[in-house]
Design brief:
With 139 residues, this protein is mainly α. It is built from four helices and two strands; from the N terminus they run αααββα. It has one domain. The two termini are 20 Å apart.
Length: 139
Amino acid sequence: MLEIIREFGRDGAVLLLGLSVGAAWITAIVAPNTSYDNLSANQAEKHVRELLKSASDPIAVLLFVAAGLGILGGAVVSGILALVAAIGFFTNRWILKSFKSDSGKEEAPGKTQRILAVSLTLLFGLAAAAAAVLAVLGI
């Protein structure tokens, strides 16, 4: 019985980690390239910012669940790495948060914040990929 639970946990972690890596790739690479090809620069900038903000939470939730399943399945290192990646995806909400200017008007974050959010998405997507490999190996 315990072996069945372990297999379920490890297999579920691998599945969710793979899904989160794919979602991070779509969010950080595919969609922004398409946006900049088909939209004006300002529209593409806004679209990418909103995409990163809205996609980071579901990816983080997938990683939290994968971390739990990985630890349940005996892949403790994979679970811890998935947990670190999940926390990293939550940081995109704070990086891309809108702020009030001195005039009281709400302004969107600048280009630097978007570049940082894309970089962190790629970095933590790579961490999720490493966690998936570790989960397959049962580490």
